[in-house]
Structure formats: structure tokens, C-alpha cells
Amino acid sequence: MIKSRSIPISNILRKFTQRYASSQALATDLKNIVGNDNVATTASVREQHSHDESYHAGHVPDVVVFAQSTDHVSKIVKYCASKRVPVIPFGTGTGLEGGVTAPKGGVCLDLSRMDKVLSVNAEDFDCTVQAGVTRNALNTYIRDTGLQFPIDPGANASLGGMCATSASGTMAVRYGTMRENVMNLEVVLADGSIIKTAGLKGRSRKTSSGYNLTNLFVGQEGTLGIITEATLKLHAIPEAVLAAVAPFKDLRAAVNATVAIMQSGLPVARIEFLDENMVDACNRFSKLNLDVAPTLFLEFHGSNSNIEAQGRIAEETCKSFECLKFTFATETDRRNELWKARHNVWYAAHALRPGSKGYSTDVCVPISALPDMIQFADNEVKRLQLLGLTIGHVGDGNFHVILIVDPNDFEEIKRVHDFATILAKEALRMNGTITGEHGIGVGKKQLLIDEFGLHGINTMKIIKKALDPLNILNPGKIIDIEKGF
Amino acid sequence: MIKSRSIPISNILRKFTQRYASSQALATDLKNIVGNDNVATTASVREQHSHDESYHAGHVPDVVVFAQSTDHVSKIVKYCASKRVPVIPFGTGTGLEGGVTAPKGGVCLDLSRMDKVLSVNAEDFDCTVQAGVTRNALNTYIRDTGLQFPIDPGANASLGGMCATSASGTMAVRYGTMRENVMNLEVVLADGSIIKTAGLKGRSRKTSSGYNLTNLFVGQEGTLGIITEATLKLHAIPEAVLAAVAPFKDLRAAVNATVAIMQSGLPVARIEFLDENMVDACNRFSKLNLDVAPTLFLEFHGSNSNIEAQGRIAEETCKSFECLKFTFATETDRRNELWKARHNVWYAAHALRPGSKGYSTDVCVPISALPDMIQFADNEVKRLQLLGLTIGHVGDGNFHVILIVDPNDFEEIKRVHDFATILAKEALRMNGTITGEHGIGVGKKQLLIDEFGLHGINTMKIIKKALDPLNILNPGKIIDIEKGF
Questions:
Q1: Contact A225, A190 (CB under 8 A)
Q2: pLDDT exceeding 70 applies to what percent of chain A?
Q3: Which of A100, A105, B41, B112 shows its CA 20 to 30 Å from the CA of A175?
Q4: Is A5's pLDDT higher than 70?
Q5: Which of B170, B175, B206 to mutate to test the interface with A (most CBs of A within 10 A)?
């Protein structure tokens, strides 16, 4: 007994000492590559880089290194490959599936200092940015061009991170997701080599040239390569914008109205559903005075001559589904107030229960299945006695149930897990997907197998193994290479 | 001398006899798999499957096999893998880069008998088809739903083939290319396994679930897998359609007008440029009476209330670039006559020179570079004394110079090659791509290296080698695996 106790303790101590020594050696080597100012090993910086905004358990990296250039990234990856050390790219840490945690330790590669807008081609409606430029920073930079980058996941995420997770958000129903808006990427591969996914200088609107590497690297969550630059489509700021709010007597009426609006072909710019819990949370957090009822937030983009017609069609449709009210928000201030409240739902939901952590489901289904799907979610939240608030990009068939949990209540966390699994499987049964925009991260690896089946997952593994044979790029995310390969 | 002559001749004879014997054995084995009626070895059927519509040299396959089901395709691929025999998928043979030729012999896998529309979900604007369904067949099938599949490469191509080459055409400026319109694919991989690229049952409008396999298989030209089914987005047939024709005094004025229309954000549905040679050929072939001048064909899709406004904006823009005329084609018959003529340009160009073969360039550049690019092409055609006619999907920055050559005049063919290379390199210099919609096939493999550089090409090779380790899937297309890997 004495022996069996003493060995593990000394093992643990030796392991800890080795890990600490190797962390120090890592940091020293990395300082030689990128300079002292770009390497951090303090507990606070490492902790800050150990987690995203979700309830997924954080794991601290051994070192945080701040890249200032693509050359830095290439050298860091080459070094990590030589040492067989994991590299985890980090943008703003606003992800929701644990994509930036470091379960195997290693080097967190923070790209936030790569924050330059490299070019704006207003006449071609495109721009090229470094990976660390945020969505808001880009829109501020280009505000005098009459153009915008409309993809809006809520958080002020980095554009590199948005590429890596295939983000979308409220505007996707009109402007598409990152998949449709990324024209080219600069990527550092697992051996440190640098590629451009759509040609060395390519920024044409379409191409059939070779394999579509761009869309292989959009959504790969840092597991196939580190995105260092992105060429993005820009869109004209609309001449006229009109918003509206429509509360309904029940959720099914609101969702049915959405389905009818989408099927009419109206080019709605945003159409967001909030259940009554969510409206209530918004009222409290954002000091609004909305009717507490299942509600649609709508926005229309167009010309001065057609914007009112768009609004009227939506109004008629909502009224035919017996909405309780249909109120236009014509003034910019009122519109901004509404969308700011919409964007703060994550924080509004957390504010209901101090000290809580949130988890957001992210299923997406064909639009015709949406009423049944949201009703199903509502029933299950009640059955499992969870605090769940529903918010959805319903025009795309995508919605989130934000579950507010006590991070110390393991029984409650288990119910959240059960709910997420039940919901995802129901979405698959309805020809949907387990994630419309958040990605897989650490949270949905098992469900991914349900979605794709063994041959599909095997295809992903073949690609991962071919492009990252040492499994150093964000290991343990999307697919587990060690298990069963 | 005698010895050195006699050995090659006996070698050739032996090789021929071996190849013939192995072809017969292949056919016998394949008949056991798919039945006698689905295997052809006659010279005429093999010749018909040896080439597409381009001037690329045809190479006959050893056997042509007609798959009737995904199960057939899987079994055929498994069999070919066991024998290390190439498998070349074949749709309608309307490609333009030699993608269906069989330079290494092997099995041509004709998918035209997989011609069932499997499902139409009108309320979700999607459908699922077998790979052999043609574009026209689908649109005929769904004509009562109020929906259409608008992607229109001109030829009545199979939808599987359009997925495989990432086709687009005249409507892409409004509705996107295949990349934006394919939601899911069923693919048979090199080992015969069957995957669905966006989940086993997935047909949601967006997804961030795992690697984007769908867009890896769109545009892979049969080199990574055989596409057997496709789930496609459908679009509402517009309430109102308006077409217009605008001849200009010179090509630069016409292209500058296009750039201005695109930059205004007008949601034009088609905007096609024809140079004066092309207009002349259309007049002759399609019995039209157009002014022989650089010309834009335009089309607008919208509602009865906004269609005229769209047309007026385009008219004002064209007039500001001093168009010679601007004539609306409001009647359906006149509109169809124009677009039929547009679709027949390939044949109209060939009719100028009986017995000729055509080659079409396919560069695509950012819209701001388009006037210089088309002018450059025009100058080079004249300098090299070629018969070249220019036609373009200019709203996307994509245009074709159709070169009409005497297939027996090797000196002329060399000049065509030189022209295509010069044009592609100029497009790359202008941040464009060597192919907007035709793909690489056998014709542009060297230029692909110029476009992507060695690390980019190497990434494609890694993926090809990982997914098709025996190099049996359409070998010799897109990239050469044997060379330099």
C-alpha cells in the first residue's frame, strides 16, 4: 500500500516538474523566435487563454505567444512541429464550443496583434485583412467607402476566428455565411509552409481552379492550418434600412409567420425569433419595454423606393398569423437599441442567474421543419426543468437555446448535456445539422459521428491525418485522431 | 539496328494483345457486377466517351459501364480499385477541358442512366437528384412548383457533371455558382465507400458541422470521388422578367458600362458581353438582325412593381457610356430568341469555319480589371492572327475567347496554346484566376501551378493522395500525381 501510494505521488511531481521545465524551455525558444514582448507565461495570461465564452472546462496552455506576422506564425508552427507540441490558435476567445481550450497543453497562438487591414478594393467590393482584425474594426476602417462587412455573429469576433468556425449570425439570411463571403485565405500549414487557398493573388468573384481549399479551411477550427489573412467580400451599405418588432400569441404562430415570409421570397435582411423568456431577459438587461411574448425582430435593406413595400409585405404576413402588434422602428436610435439588445442576449441571459455559465445549442433545420423543431425544444426544456431561453436566426432555420447553468451543479449540467443531445438528434432526424454556426470544438464530437456516419468521419480523419500528420494543430477539436483510427 | 527495330515492334504487339485481353476480362467482370446491358465495348461507344466538346485530344477508355444506382458505382469502383484500373466519370460529355478523356485507358463510368429526381421539397426550396439528371430535365420536372434551378452553363449538362466542374454560366451573377447552390452530395470514394458530404440526411441552409466536404467535392472533377447524388438549392421563378440589348461603339465602353452597373449594386440577373465577331456569328447562325458592334445582353428578375425601375437604371448607365441603342425585349419570344442565340455561341462560332475545333479560354478577374483584361485579350488575338470571338459573363469578371482552329494545323494550335497561356498569366497578374467555370481538366495543369505555387499544389496533392492512394479516380486531371511527388 505504501509503495503503491508513493509511486504515483513522485510520478505526479516528476511530471509536473518536467512539464514546468519544458514550459520554460518552450518559452525561451519562442522568445528567441518572436522576441520577449510576444511571449507570456504568467498564470493570468494563460488562464485568460484557456477558455472561451462557453461553459466548457478550460485547460491552460503552457505558453501564450503573440504573433505579429505570418512569418512569426510559420516559424512558431515549424518550431512546435519539431517539438511535437500542440498549437492552438486564439482570436478573441468569443467562441462557444471550447475551440480555444488546450486540453493537451502546448502553445496558444494569439493572433490579436495581427490587426492590420492590408487592402480595400472598394470598386471590387473586397478587402484583405490580417486574421486578428475584428469585425467592428474592419467596419470602422471602411466606413467612408459606403461598404460594409455585414456578417455579424453578435460578438466582436476576429475575422480569422470567424473564418475558422464558419461563423454567420443575424445577417446571414441576406448576405450569407463566412463560406459565401471568404474569397481567399492565407494559411500556415502544419509544417510551417504558407499557402493561399484561392491562388497566390486571387480575388476573383468565382473560380473553378483546382480543389476548393478556401472552403476546406473555412470551418476547420484551426485543426488543418492557422489562418493568417483573409480576403473578404464587402457589400454596399443599403440606401434605406427599416426594422420592425412583432410579438405573437404563441411561438408556433411566430415561427409559422417566419416560414411564410421566407417562402414568399422577400429578401429580408434579418429575421430573429425571441421566445418570451428571452424578451423578458432583454427588457431587464437592456432596459426595453417590449411585450413579453414570442417575438420577431425584422430588418429590411433596400432603396428608398422599395423599403416600405418590403415592410408592408412582412406586416401583412405577420398579421395573417395573428401577431399581437407590428411596430416599425424607423428611427436609427430605436433600431440600434433593438439590435444592441439582440446582440446582448448572451449577457442578458446570464444576468438572470448571477455566477452562472451558459451553454448554447445551435441546431439548424430546413425551414419547413422549424415550427415543430422549436416546439420540440420548448417542450424538452420544460420537461427537463432547465432555465432555457430561445433566440434564433429563424430565416435560416437556425436557433439557439441558451441554457443557464450553475457550473457547480453536476446534476444540472448532465441535464443540459442530455437536452443538447436530444435536440441535436431530433434536428438530424428532421434533415438538419447539429451546428449551424458555432462549430464542433470539444462539445459536439460524438454528435458529429451521428451526423456523418463512420465513412463521413473517416473522410475527415483522412484529411486531418494527411494535412497534420503529427496532430499538433488544435488537437482534440472536431475529431479525435487517436481514438479508433 | 535490326535488333533494335524488331524488339519494339514485338513489344508493341504484345502490349496491344495484353491490353485487348485485359479489356475483355474487364468487360466480363463488369457484366457480372452490373449486367450485360450496362457494359459496352464497341468502338463507337468507346469513341463517343473518349472526348468532350473541346479540341483536347480524345483517349478511348477500355470499357464503358453505365451505372444504374449508387450501389453499382460503389461496386464498380471497388472492382477497379482491386485491379488498379482508372475510373473516369462521364455525364453528358459537354465539358471543355478534356475532363472525360481516358489517357490511361480504364473504365468510363457513364452516369446518364442515374436520371431520377429523388425528392423535391418545394417549401424548403431544395431538391435531391441522381447525378445523371440534366439541368433541363430538372427544370421540366419542377415546372409546376414555381421554382427553378437557374444555374445555366449553356449546355444541357448533367447536374453531377456541373457539381464536379463547379459550373456556373449566365445566371451566376444573380444566383451564384454550383458552390453556392449545392447543399449536400452523395459521393463514392476510391475504396467504394459511400459518404454524404453534409451529413447523412442534411439539407439545412447553413452548417458549421465538421470539414466542408461538400465544397471539397464540388469542382474536384472526379479525381477525389464519384458524385452520385446532389441536394440542390432551388429559387423562385421571378414574377417579372425583362431583357435588353445594348450595342456600344467599342468594347471598352461596353465593359465600362458593365463595371458601373455592377458597382451600383443593381441585382442584374444576367449581363453578357459579346464582341462584334460574336454578334456577327450569332446573326448568321441564329438568324438575328443585331447591330454588329460590341454588345451587352441584359436580364432583370423582379416583381412587376420594380422590374421597370431596374431596367431604367441599366438603361441610364449604358447611355452614360454612350451606347448606340438600348432596346428592351419585353416579349417572352424575343427574350428566348436572344438567350437561345447566346447559348448557341459555341456552335455559331464553329459554323464560321467548317471542320474546325474550338477552344475556349475562361479567365476571371476582379471587375475593376475587366476593361483592361478584355482589351488585352482583343489585342493578343489580333497580334497572333487567330480567329477569336469573345463572350463573357462580365458581371462576374469572367469571359471566354472562343478560338476556332483547324485541328490539323499544328502551327495554329501552337498559337492558340500560346494565347491561352499569355491570357491566363495576365489574369493572374491582375489578381484573377485561370478558370472561372470550366475547370482544369487536362488543359490547365501547368497554369494551376502558376496560380497556386508549389505549396498550394502540394496541398492539393496531399489531399488527392490521401483520398485516392492508388490514383485510380480520373487520373491525369487537375494534378499529375506521378510527377514530382
A1: yes
A2: 95
A3: A100
A4: no
A5: B206
B360 contacts: CB under 8 Å, gap ≥ 6: B54, B96, B346, B400, B401, B402, B403, B438
Is 90 exceeded by the pLDDT of residue A419? yes
Assigned C-alpha cell, B218: 464540388
Report yes or no: B270 at the A interface, CB cutoff 8 Å: no
Q: 3.30.70.2190, 2.60.40.10, 3.40.50.970, 3.40.190.10: which CATH number matches A239-348?
A: 3.30.70.2190
Q: Is A138 on the interface with B (CB under 8 A)?
A: no
Q: What 3 state SS string does A390-401 have?
A: EEEEHHHCEEEE
Helix A445-467 and helix A410-429, axial crossing angle in degrees, nearest 10 = 80
Residues of B in contact with A458 (CB under 8 A): 193
Query: Is the CB of residue B81 less than 8 Å from the CB of residue B190?
Result: yes
CATH number of B117-236: 3.30.465.10
Measure the CA angle with vertex A188, ends A84 and B463; round to 5°.
85
Q: What pLDDT does B289 receive?
A: 93
Distance CA B443, CA B482 (A): 17
| DSSP H helices in A206-357 | 213-217, 251-263, 276-286, 307-320, 332-343, 345-351
Give how far A8 is from chain B: nearest CA, Å: 38
Q: What's the pLDDT score for residue A449?
A: 97
Q: Does B213 touch chain A (CB under 8 A)?
A: yes
- The b-or-e profile of A207-227 (16+ CB within 10 A means b, else e) is bbbbbbbbbbbbbbbbbbbbb
Secondary-structure class of domain A353-480 per CATH? alpha beta
Nearest CA to A456 out of B157, B261, B194 is that of B194
User: Cα–Cα distance between B80 and B63 in angstroms, integer?
Assistant: 12
DSSP state of B158: B
Contact (CB<8Å) B439/A215: no
Quote the CA–CA distance of B319 and B248 in Å, as a whole number: 9
Class for domain B264-429, per CATH? alpha beta
Residue B366: beta bridge partners? none
A136–B contact, CB cutoff 8 A: no
* Fold of domain B19-108: 3.30.43
Residue A28, phi then psi, degrees to nearest 5: -60, -45
- The total number of residues shown for chain A amounts to 485
Interface of A with B in 161-180 (CB under 8 A): 165-168, 172, 176-177, 179-180
- Cβ under 8 Å to B: A residues 410-439: 428-429, 431-439
- Predicted ipTM beyond 0.90: yes
Which residues between 344 and 403 in chain B have a beta carbon less than 8 angstroms from any beta carbon of chain A? 362, 364-368, 396-398
Task: Check CB contact under 8 Å for B431 and A463.
Answer: no
CB atoms A453 and B200 under 8 Å: yes
Nearest to A206 among B206, B265, B396 (CB): B396
Domain ranges of chain A: 2-110, 117-236, 239-348, 353-480
As a whole number, the mean pLDDT across chain A is 94
Same-fold call for A239-348 versus A353-480: yes
Nearest residue on chain A to B165, alpha-carbon basis: A208
CATH number for the domain running over A2-110: 3.30.43.10
A11: its cell numbers: 510520478
Say what the pLDDT of residue B265 is. Answer: 83
A205–B364 C-beta distance less than 8 A: yes
Query: Which residues of chain B fall below pLDDT 50?
Result: 1-5, 483-485
pLDDT tops 90 at residue A484: no
Instruction: Specify the pLDDT at position B226.
Output: 98
Q: Which chain B residues touch A396 with a CB distance below 8 Å? A: 204-206
Are B19 and B105 in contact by the 8 Å Cβ rule? The answer is: yes
